[in-house]
Amino acid sequence: MLEGGWILVLITASNREEAENIARELVKDKLVACVNIVDNIKSIYWWKGEIEDSRESLLLVKTRINVFDRLVKKVKSIHSYEVPEIIALPIITGYKEYLKWLSESLK
Length: 107
Prior knowledge:
107 residues; Alpha-Beta Plaits; four-stranded antiparallel sheet; elongated
């Protein structure tokens, strides 16, 4: 069962500074309840016909599905990438008190 439309959004950023800027803007605008930042991930991917190999920061973003489109618009407006990774996974269930805190954080 999907608990209240919660999603986990994954966003990669070019570095810690950019990740923190994106996280603060999303929290400030109440588009998200919480963002965790994981530094120094290694990404290997195709970009414009070439294999790229880079270090990035990963944002783990908790929010509701009904704000996803606004979140994407905000991230695209401040992100340095031409095509930023912004993907969402459903949060199937979770600790009830934590989900309650998430809900209260977006009010």
